[in-house]
Amino acid sequence: MYLLTAINHFNNTTFNSTIDTGLHRKLLHSNHAREVQPNRIWGDKCSKSDIVINQGPTDPLPSGIPTYSVEIMNVCTTGCDISAIHLRCGWFSSARLINPHLFKRLRYNDCLVNNGNPLVNGHTLSFQYANTFRYPLSVSSVIC
């Protein structure tokens, strides 16, 4: 368990979040800063912007294939659990087996997170994949 301090790129505020993890990893890159979401409408329970995706390189496989670590976090400020998280993922594939209950490609540009089950507020789901290049991953839809 460690304490993560993150900066909200939209209003330069800082928040702390405790994340459970057994892995020691390098700083991961976030796609969240590139994708600007509209402000939450008063009364909305959650939005796509409450799911933050970070990924970065890790040690390659013995065969030399690059490996990437992915973290998918629920940072909902209203305490919501978010389910049916779908990501834009292109033709995502991996030379390293990924538990399909955590992450699986359903069809082109549609990957399902956590088998559609809720990602509890404040929790992080993580996995590693291996491919010759990094896949850009971004949230396409969620259910609050």
TrEMBL record:
<dbReference type="Pfam" id="PF24068">
    <property type="entry name" value="TPD1_C"/>
</dbReference>
<protein>
    <recommendedName>
        <fullName>Protein TAPETUM DETERMINANT 1</fullName>
    </recommendedName>
</protein>
<dbReference type="InterPro" id="IPR040361">
    <property type="entry name" value="TPD1"/>
</dbReference>
<dbReference type="GO" id="GO:0001709">
    <property type="term" value="P:cell fate determination"/>
</dbReference>
<keyword id="KW-0732">Signal</keyword>
